[in-house]
Amino acid sequence: MTTIRTSAFGHRIALEMPLRGAALLAASTLVICALLLASLSLGSAGVGFNDALAALLGSASERADLVAIEFRLPRALTALMAGGLLALSGALLQGTTLNPLADPALIGVSQGAGLAVVALAVLLPNAPDAWSAPAAFGGGLIVAVFILAMTGARSGASTRFLLIGIGIAAFLTALTTAILTYGRISGAHEALGWLAGSVRSAGWDEVRQMGWVSVAALAIMLLAARPLSALRLGDDLAASLGHIVSRARVLLLFGSVGLAAASVSVVGPITFVGLLAPHAARRLAPTGPGLHLALSWAVGACLTLAADLAGRAAFGAIQVPAGLVTALVGAPCFALLMLRKHRKESS
Amino acid sequence: MVEIAPDKPGRITVRGLGVRRGETQALRGVDLDIVPGAMTALVGRNGCGKSTLLKTIARILRPETGEIEVDGTTLARLSPRAAAQRMALLPQSPILPEGMRVRDLVAQGRHPHRGLVRHWSPEDDAAIDAAMAATDTVQFADRRLEALSGGQRQRCWIAMTLAQDTPILLLDEPTTYLDLSVQLEIMGLLARLARKGRTILVVLHELNLAAAFADRIVMMRDGQIDAEGPPSEVLTAPLLQRVFGLDARIIADPDTGRPVCLPRTAA
Amino acid sequence: MSIRALLPVAVLSVLLIGALAWHLGAGAHAVPPRAVISALLSGGESYDAAVIAGIRLPRALGAMLAGASLSAAGALMQGATRNPLAEPGLFGLLAGAALAVVAAQGVFGLGAPSLVPLLAAFGALVGALMVWGLTTAAGGGAGMLTPVLAGAAVSAFLAALTTLLNLVDERNFEDLRVWLSGSLAGLRMPVVGMVAPWALAGLAAALLLAPKLTVLSLGDESAQGLGVPVARIRVLTLVAVVVLTASAVALAGPLAFVGLTVPHAARLTFGSDYTRLLPASIALGAIYLLAADTVGRTLIAPAEISTGILTALVGAPVFVALLKVRG
């Protein structure tokens, strides 16, 4: 397999990437750009394709500029980055638990973040909006720490990790639904929309917020690649290769939770992206952990962007939150993955 | 004339090692010197502690008492990375990573030699090439691991441990679940590696494989060393009776002169 | 019958009557025990009597029926699947029932209370079959994980559809949002009267199935060898579970974890012989939901804590503890 290699300072910094991976990354960048343009031009307020392009270049009419740049661009960028973070989070989670069905929205991390935000809105209705992001982060983190404390850091515990996570998710969902009944109906309805995972209200503040997290995600991606690939070989082998297995696993899990919580805090719990994107990425390029993370990011970004676009444009006047689109598409895909896993194990 | 001691790297010294696994005392006061540059086979009944000993040397299990030295350095004082530069482990049934290419698997062995942002170097390539040549796996380089047969996979795993470029190689039952001809192939490979100067410590289930290929045999019983020495000294009828509860004759292989254990089957 | 066998019956009866009395007497407007009894026996025109007969009694009966039904459903599922985590909520039945009710009311305008049990039964059946089918296709009948994963996926899918309908129709959501969280508030006698026959039939079926489930717990092949028609028992169990779940949902909305908590609590004292476990689960389930509802009404009176919050708060630790013990 052909690879691209670069190095500097007498090989002190050296990176490599298979040619096919680089091509795929370039292709997904193109898809993202196309989806972005589509996001800018499609929707209830018609802005033509050319107008959207012109708005990006700063030469459009005032109205096109307003719709495309002030409303649609931040929304699209937020969807893109949130999806990327979720996908990365899912890839880390699957790599550390060695379970291909792990997903931050399946094991309660997203639900913990969601409950924290809803509880904040109901218990402290006058709290400033800026509190909801740290609250979501805290909520997700508490769930992850709790599951970790209950299961320990060994890979053999991954079944229990998933089971406890699913139980926690059911528990938190029940609590969130019940808490919703205390709010005023308008607030509850709005919260319901957020809980369904929506980028509807995203503006440039959210874009900035997501941008910083994405920069952190890039660092995590570079550092996590090698421990992740070693963990795939099993704990014993990873340890004998010089990895400190339990520490690596805990750090990777925290990274995963952090990324998911950061994403949930802005767009709400979008389900199944963290599950499906890493699988799709593996299908596209079956090897290389670093590349796998990068491709997962790209696929997750595309999925969420497309889901937001579909939910916004496909159903006419009804705006369907991106999270519902991903759930309705993702659940059947999840079922297919379960079947595939079984076929593989029994053959 | 003074005989000069061979100053090969890879000497393992075990002193007073005690390991507890759950409720049971798996190792009770093990003292052992592993001869460098030779293949030593660990044998004994199920549950005698042979795998425990190997895993403790490999730092997978933690000793309760005693210590392990590698070339005069206490193992516990080495960082995980430094220890991984001195010895490599092949566990009994390593997890089969989905979709991994053989060359990528072998490249994993380079981890202890890599830096934080140095993902490859010419030395890495050389080590990987050499490891794959030594194990005759070059032709599989771009294939996926799960597409290979059991014996081919095992050679790839061994290539990975070779790429780690360590003086010591630890293997836990590397021939289990393989056909007899493949078992011989793997053992032959390990014997060649030992002749080239690696210290090889291998847990074996099959006594006759140990007798045919190992330079030294360590027999374990109830978490202790029962006998240790070259196959011709250790493989004796009384010892087999004591360690394995086995009524057997020992005959010499007409080709190699090595001992062969022949259990009595007549009723 | 020996004293030993009668003792648990006596204890459970006392507990049930105690919980019922507490439920009827306590609340935002406390009613003394004597007034409770006289209101129940002779009716009357007093305010106390009106509160008891018109508001609390239907609610208490609803709590008992819903708790008993969910617990019996959980115990049946655990017996038929030999999976300790089997429960209407985790296995997709509640999500299916909720979706069916929301869809019928929102989309088709079928809001009549008499239809709710039927709709819920249909939805629960669909949810159960989806999870069962996916689990079987994925070859995971034996392990704990596969059915739970299938349940999570199916629940996520059905819940997304429910949310979608709620988002589209804000008025329908307002009507149903309290019910969706699992609550007994506002339950009236006609509804209880309508659901009660279903629930009682389901409970009777559960009791009849109990001895077969004990044999089934030895494994399919042993059960077959002992002459139990395994497949037919499974189908009958599914029908009973669906009817029980639907009754509970019609009364109290989708209450998670009750079907998990109660049978396992019963297991601690009554062992795993289903001929003892099922009656015990039924009685304990009635007591449990009566107590939970009373606590929910009195703790921060005059406001109420939704029953769903309380059952989730109790149920989640039980779930985690189960995994701790079995893992």
UniProtKB/TrEMBL annotation, chain A:
Pfam families noted in UniProt: FecCD (PF01032)
Location of this chain's protein in the cell: Cell membrane
Membrane topology label: Multi-pass membrane protein
Cell membrane as UniProt keyword: yes
Domain of life assignment: Bacteria
Keywords recorded for this protein, A-Z: Cell membrane, Membrane, Transmembrane, Transmembrane helix, Transport
Biological processes per GO annotation: siderophore-iron import into cell
SUPFAM superfamilies for the chain: ABC transporter involved in vitamin B12 uptake, BtuC (SSF81345)
Gene3D superfamilies: ABC transporter involved in vitamin B12 uptake, BtuC (1.10.3470.10)
TM region positions: 76-93, 105-124, 130-149, 161-185, 210-229, 250-277, 318-339
InterPro entries associated with the record: ABC_BtuC-like, ABC_transptr_permease_BtuC
Single annotated GO MF: transmembrane transporter activity
Family, as annotated: Belongs to the binding-protein-dependent transport system permease family. FecCD subfamily.
Name of the protein: Iron complex transport system permease protein
Protein's organism: Roseivivax halotolerans
UniProtKB/TrEMBL annotation, chain B:
GO cellular component: plasma membrane
Classification via SMART domains: AAA
Keywords: ATP-binding, Cell membrane, Ion transport, Iron, Iron transport, Membrane, Nucleotide-binding, Transport
Protein's GO biological process: iron ion transport
Bilayer topology annotation: Peripheral membrane protein
Domain ABC transporter, chain residue ranges per copy: 12-247
GO molecular function, one term: ATP binding
Main location: membrane
PROSITE patterns recorded: ABC_TRANSPORTER_2
InterPro entries: AAA+_ATPase, ABC_transporter-like_ATP-bd, P-loop_NTPase, Siderophore_ABC-ATPase
Subcellular location: Cell membrane
Highest taxon in the source lineage: Bacteria
Protein's name in the database: Iron complex transport system ATP-binding protein
TrEMBL record, chain C:
Keyword Iron: no
Pfam families: FecCD
InterPro entries linked: ABC_BtuC-like, ABC_transptr_permease_BtuC
Keywords in alphabetical order: Cell membrane, Membrane, Transmembrane, Transmembrane helix, Transport
Main localization, broad class: membrane
Alphabetical list of Gene3D superfamilies matching this protein: ABC transporter involved in vitamin B12 uptake, BtuC
GO biological process entries: siderophore-iron import into cell
GO cellular-component term (any): plasma membrane
Gene Ontology MF, one: transmembrane transporter activity
Family recorded in the similarity comment: Belongs to the binding-protein-dependent transport system permease family. FecCD subfamily.
Name used for this protein in its record: Iron complex transport system permease protein
Organism: Roseivivax halotolerans
